[in-house]
Amino acid sequence: MRPFATAGFGLLAMFSAISTPISTAAAAAMTNDMDLVYGKYQMAIRAAQLCRGAPDTDAVWRKWSSYLDAQTKHELGAGERLSIIEGVKGDVTYMVRRQGCDSDAVKDLLALYDAELAGLIRK
To answer: Are 31 and 76 in contact (CB under 8 A)?
Structure first.
């Protein structure tokens, strides 16, 4: 399953819809919501790697992975996570190359990275 690989820039509109906390009424569709949450964080990480040279070490990935697992309520299996990572990695790379790090879409991803993920690597 590669839900994000061919989705292109439509992902950003879809991900912006989940910037608010997930309500208990939406719990029935948890797995799909968690795919989106996980994908959004992975997009933010990839944007930070490409635009800011964010670290790519095992220690940092362990911190990020623990945080993302908690944010997704441990709902996603390894295969599902890998599929999402592979899809969004290409999408964000394409977006950064075409639109640049100063585009609004990439700035939104970097803002998420700054707000929730950057601090984890300093701990």
So the answer is: yes
Per residue in 46-81, pLDDT (tens digit) is: 999 999 999 999 999 999 999 999 999 999 999 999
Tokens of 54: 């964010």
**What is the reported pTM?**
0.75
Which whole-number Å values give the CA distances from 33 to 80, 113, 120, in the listed order? 13, 19, 23
Two structure tokens written together for 69 = 């697992």
Q: Is 18 exposed, middle or buried (0-12, 13-18, 19+ CB in 10 A)?
A: middle
Kindly report the number of other CB atoms within 10 A of residue 56's CB atom: 9
Here the tokens at position 82 are 């890998």
Residue 65, token pair as written in the block = 């992975």
